[in-house]
Amino acid sequence: MKTSTKDCRLVFRITAFFAALVLAVSCSHKPEPVNENTAASQQPAGTGIEECLTKSPDDKQKIAVQKSLDQLRHARRATESVMIDVAFHVLYKAPGAANGEVDQATLNKQIDVLNAAYSGTPFKFRLASVDKTLNVSWFNMVQDSADEVLAKSRLGIKRKEVLNFYTGGGGNWSTFPWDVSAELDLDGVVCTFSTLPGGSSSSNNEGDVAVHEVGHWLGLFHTFEGKCTADNDLVSDTPAEQIAATANCPIGRDTCPGASFPGLDPVTNYMDYGTDACRKEFTSEQVSRMDAMHALYRKP
Ligand SMILES: [Zn+2]
């Protein structure tokens, strides 16, 4: 059952969605909404890597999103021309790196990893601020919890263009850009501290979990979002994929075979579920989508 808080948020989302539709008609740009759980993006069993809990819009909302982008197509902005300020919010349960008290050097490395991964895109990242909070409940916050609302409301920088980056111990997820106006307090990414560069996660400790979550923050879906459908992740140059990549990086796999779905599974894509050693690329159309999404929803 949904909590009253979630009910309020859903009403907010619906209201924001229709308000955005009205705006879209007048400016020929488009809105996009998001919604509660669909199973499409949930992790299949057996992937064995850091789980991503980012939710998906439902099909109607995806269509609205895509229509908005189709009308927004424009020349991609120049490489590294868009600076994104990153506000780190370190949540820890006790003093010490083993308890989530991430040090400055690790945060700097995470910025470096983001910049390397996004080097072929319009985006560049710089560390803007760091705050650290000793709070066991906030450290363990999970998606849609009261602690998430409390922690983010208290700590988040309330500007839609700032990347609020929370580290804790409760999982990995992100908000989508089309939610930013309705849910500015919740905007941002959350990563388990052990996934940051040099962390204790066995197969995801190079900082690519953050690269993946920031991809969501800029409007990308998982590469297996729509499974073997023509639209799949609404990106034209990522082949359709039935299930997420497994931890062994199954290069050459084709879970949507046949002429209707040409191309091997994009298991090395940052938006799949390969390990950090496996994930290493965005496609050109993913970059264009992120650029358009940012220009539409986050540009100051
Ligand atoms: Zn994800």
In short:
This protein has helices at 4-27, 59-72, 104-117, 136-139, 146-155, 208-217, 284-297; strands at residues 82-92, 123-134, 163-168, 173-174, 189-192. It has 300 residues and is of the alpha/beta class.
Which ligands occur here?
Answer: zinc ion
Average pLDDT: 85
According to DSSP, the number of beta strands is: 5
Spatial strand sequence of the major β-sheet:
2-1-3-5-4
CATH architecture of the domain at 82-220: 3-Layer(aba) Sandwich
Query: Could you say which overall geometry the principal axes of the C-alpha atoms support?
Result: globular
Identify the CATH homologous superfamily of the domain at 82-220.
Collagenase (Catalytic Domain)
Give the CATH class of the domain at 82-220. Answer: Alpha Beta
Can you write the helix and strand succession as a string?
HHEHEHHEEEHH
CATH topology of the domain at 82-220: Collagenase (Catalytic Domain)
Radius of gyration of CA atoms, rounded to a whole number: 18 Å
- The end-to-end span amounts to 37 Å
Number of helices: 7
What is the helix fraction of residues, given as a range? 25-40%
Q: Roughly what fraction of the amino acids lie in strands? A: 5-15%
Helix and strand content put the structural class at: alpha/beta
Can you summarize the main beta sheet? 5 strands, mixed
- The low-confidence parts are 1-48
Give the helix/strand layout.
Layout (H helix, E strand, L loop, with lengths): L3 H24 L31 H14 L9 E11 L11 H14 L5 E12 L1 H4 L6 H10 L7 E6 L4 E2 L14 E4 L15 H10 L66 H14 L3
Parallel strand pairs: 1-2, 1-3, 3-5
Antiparallel strand pairs: 4-5
The structure holds zinc ion (ZN).
The site of zinc ion has 5 residues, from helix 6.
